[in-house]
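Side project, low priority. Logging it here so it doesn't get lost.
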Amino acid sequence: MLKQLLEQYLKNLTNTFQRGDAREESYYANLDELIKKTAAFLKVKNIDVTILPKKTEAGNPDFRIWDGKNHITGYIEAKDPSTANLDYIEGTEQLKRYCDTFPNVILTNFYEFRLYRGGQRIAQAMIGRPIIARQLHTPPPVENCDQFKDLFETFFSFSLPKVKSARSLAIELAKRTRFLCDEVIAVEIEEDGTKGQKQIIGVFEAFKKYLIGTLTERQFADLYAQTITYGLFAARTRANGDFNRRLAFDYIPNTIGILRDVFRFISLEEPPKSLQIIVEDIAELLHVTDVKKILHEYYSTGKGKDPIIHFYETFLSTYDPEIRERRGVYYTPEAVVGYIVRSIHSILKTHFGLSDGLASPEVKLLDPAGGTLTFPAAAIHLAAKEFTTKYGEGGLHHWIKNHILQDFYAFELMMAPYAIGHLKIGFILDELSYSLADDERFKLYLTNTLEMEEIKQISIPGVSSLSEESHLAGEVKKEQPILVILGNPPYSGISSNVNEWTEKLLKEDIDGCQSYYKVDDEPLGEKNPKWLQDDYVKFLRFAQWKIQKSGFGIVGMITNHGYLDNPTFRGMRQSLMKTFDEIYILDLHGNSLKRETTPEGGKDENVFDIRQGVAIALFVRNKEQKNSKIYHADLYGLRQEKYDWLDKNEFLKENYLPVKPQAPYYFLGKHDTETIKKYLDWKKVNEIFPINSVGIVTARDKLTIKWSKYEMWNTVLNFIKMEPEMARQAYDLGRDVRDWKVVFAQEDLKKTGMDRNKIFQILYRPFDLRFTYYTGRSRGFHCMPRPKVMRHMLEENIGLTLGRQVKASREWRHCLISNKIIESSFVSNKTSEITYLFPLYLYPDEKNKDLFNHTQTKKEPNISSFIFEKLNECYGKKPTSEEILYYIYGIFYSNTFRETYAEFLKIDFPRVPFTSDYDLFIEMGKLGKELAALHLLKSPELDSPAAKYQGSGDNDRIEKVIYKEDEQRIYIN
């Protein structure tokens, strides 16, 4: 019987081939019939064969075998019968993806069948030779009938095994979610035309427009895939019987509108077939898993108070290890969360008279950067423990309903953490024997905290609830008084959250909160205060504003610790001191950018997997405001040591030392007050040399910096003639950016006129003299040529070069001298340590003189007149400009100066102590002049070489360097 079935199948294949126009898809009907008849022969019931559409080599396998409702047997991937070498196909990324994602897969070229379980080939059967059909045009004889029978018996007998551990479930979900993201959603958003595709694109465009302006299609595919998986997960925790894709919608709470929108499309409408298939596969995995039991066991066997996060960590390590490495976006260590939450709980009791702490009905709590709700979850646990310890469990249900579900709020911008957050709270409430009713939800809203304008009604299918979420969040932002604000806001360097409201929030005095852009009632005076645009600064400002409006309250956050002593943040520090009565700073350090160590010189690790140091801050505004008191503590050491300390310690004022921030910096840390006063009496170098700027930013060093005049001239001659795209490739220029474009650079060269006299030497790095073509026009050949300062260096001149602050180095040492124009990374290639140039002389305005006419004209010193007046008054004679410059250069190389004022030199331009002793002034100046000559490579001391080549060989090119310490010799090549 089976042999006859196979003979007819091989005959059908041959007939299809002889039509002459057969493609792979032409044979699908033959295979469909074979599968169904083989199932009938083997007495396998309820078999449905679905042929899956495939737009690209990505996507699902070609066939799904299932019961038509819930149970999926497996998948079949077919290749054209001309594909003789299935060994090659077996090694392709496509088949590896299928076998890694789906546990029961057949690969076939219609003649040979290979069965894979868990990614391993376990059976194969060749039922006929395709070469006979193709060359002899006759059906081949049937072979290996028993092997074919055994293979399909094994295939049809497959049933998805019950998942018994949280780890296994997380890994299996991760595999399928990665497939959903990469092979389905990413492909669908690239396509146009069908209803399903338009809907997915519509959701992407709505999220990009209303929530995340920088969202890419790839990022959306990731978010959407995770949202579907964790939405299904959340639905499964509420389902006690059957569960599948179509039933999922029924188990999404009515109150979580945005998830209802997603699953209305996924469950009730007709999403693309490829999307249906993988979602149904995920749903079946969850159907055969007792999710509640697994999570409860995970919780009770040592995974702490947050099993969802540990589950999610395992999920991410399989789904995308890179995202897991960046898990600070989602995850704050429990030790950190616990310390902040316990501290707030304690302060509510001691400062606000709320004897129940977080359990008190007066507490309104908000996490404005909720993520997966790690902080609110910890707050709920602690509050519930406080309540049941004092009042028993009898009133717990009523307390949760009327306090936790009414008074605890959170905002989240990303849809995947939003879905996980709702899942987490549902689990926590289940553990507290509270089941959310259909009309209840935790008040976690999908919204951008830093956007105050509410989203208007949206008619796009799949996202209509965004406007309702936005409205509910808007009420909390604008109207709801909040007592406690806590969390771990994002750190982003330069934020993409720039809008009219955030600009007003930061830059204006708003509702009694002093602007961050002024200090002591004066403008901040920063040329580039970009660090105030970091997201964590905006979240802190939002929290400050909310507490100011409420009149009293607490903010507890862990953030980047840069605001504690960076000079750019001095207005922010003063503003916080005016709003809050008590500020407690626990600096956790761990800043690898600054190479931080313990006070003993030991290793200091970050509590996160990031390089930027962090600090916990507790800001307290009492009901009756008093003068601000600042307290500070340090925690150094290994990561686990910090976790242990945070776990074991409660908030105690005695653990902090009082500090007294003073003008003009208002440092929120420990600083020597007397040394500060003395140091601040001196003038900063930028006050002494008023005309200054950072060095040139070329934006494209490969094009604009060359080793010789000849090479530079040839480069500009060739570059100006090329088509923009050819020039981009020829000089490896990369993509255009806002302030540097290939077309801008070419237009600059054309407009200014080609001229060899525009080629100048430039100090590119220390002692590294090269050539550039300098037009002096911004957004041209150079991105930022800084003509206000650099034009003076085209003449005979000299100038100090130094950084404003130190981040990457342990001590201040970035100070050199230059007689040429300089590149912005001259003394340090770290962006935060960008090099400033302070020219000694100024030449007449370029409007009155040709910039490139090098005839000598009268120059003026770039030294403030009050310096000459003060020194003349002190010394009884007026020093020269050079004497002042060389004195300053000598001072900056003084070991005593660098050691005594080390902490100040790291945070702002150095200040200059002018001696009252004229002889000392002259002697220090002589030392400075000698150093300058050495650093400009003009000193007679350099006439005799410090090193000599010994032995024979080619010394023009150094390819290998070996230093032998015992001989104190360097060997090359």
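Brief comment: Residues 326-330 have pLDDT under 50 and may be disordered.
Revisit when time allows.
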